[in-house]
Design a protein that fits this description.
Chain A has strands spanning about 5, 10-15, 20-25, 30-40, 40-50, 55, 65-70, 75-80, 85-95, 100-105, 110-114. Chain A is an all-beta fold. In chain A, strands 2, 4, 5, 6, 9, 10 and 11 form a seven-stranded mixed beta sheet that branches. Chain A has a four-stranded antiparallel beta sheet with strand order 1-3-8-7, with no helix packed on it. Chain B is mainly β. In chain B, strands 2, 5, 6, 10, 11 and 12 form a six-stranded mixed beta sheet that branches. Chain B has a four-stranded antiparallel beta sheet with strand order 3-9-8-7, with no helix packed on it. The chains are: A mainly beta, B mainly beta.
Chain lengths: ~110, ~120
Amino acid sequence: DAGITQSPRHKVTETGTPVTLRCHQTENHRYMYWYRQDPGHGLRLIHYSYGVKDTDKGEVSDGYSVSRSKTEDFLLTLESATSSQTSVYFCAISVRAGTGYGYTFGSGTRLTVV
Amino acid sequence: AQTVTQSQPEMSVQEAETVTLSCTYDTSESDYYLFWYKQPPSRQMILVIRQEAYKQQNATENRFSVNFQKAAKSFSLKISDSQLGDAAMYFCAYRATQGGSEKLVFGKGTKLTVNP
């Protein structure tokens, strides 16, 4: 199984402060994703990456930026956190599963902005 | 844009009985993948089952099976012999590909309660 870890697992921060969440994979999978999960909305894509320094926006990218300077790390930054960014954040990677595709998720980060 | 719709925000089932969760999707692609994920209170995302659109045979994994109707763009999940451990949020997802990139698009989820 592809190893994927997120850090931190929980974080409380104040409005207006910058926050960075980290996603780390132990293999060289090309695609990495950041989602946020909110009640009644399912998981919504924030940003994704298809290679080192190659990133693109998802459906809810406003207020977020990402960076991928190494294959194994994908960082999500909230430049100035707001209460609307209180959410659970998931990182995911796309993996080949036999002749097809699958997706592996990190354990999630619960972020509270007060 | 591809969309995924789960019309049942909540469902309940008696232990040992069968329940079906609905999912429809919208796409213009002919070849794609569909998934069902389970999310228990631990919030871990667990793959339940996967279906490749080019395969006519419905996927099955032990007590879990799907009814894939490609023309109707429907992808329902059937859970047989429901167990207390099946209680969770269930998400239907579609693997979207466009412009050479790929991403997973989710429905809003169905909360399944299993009653003893």
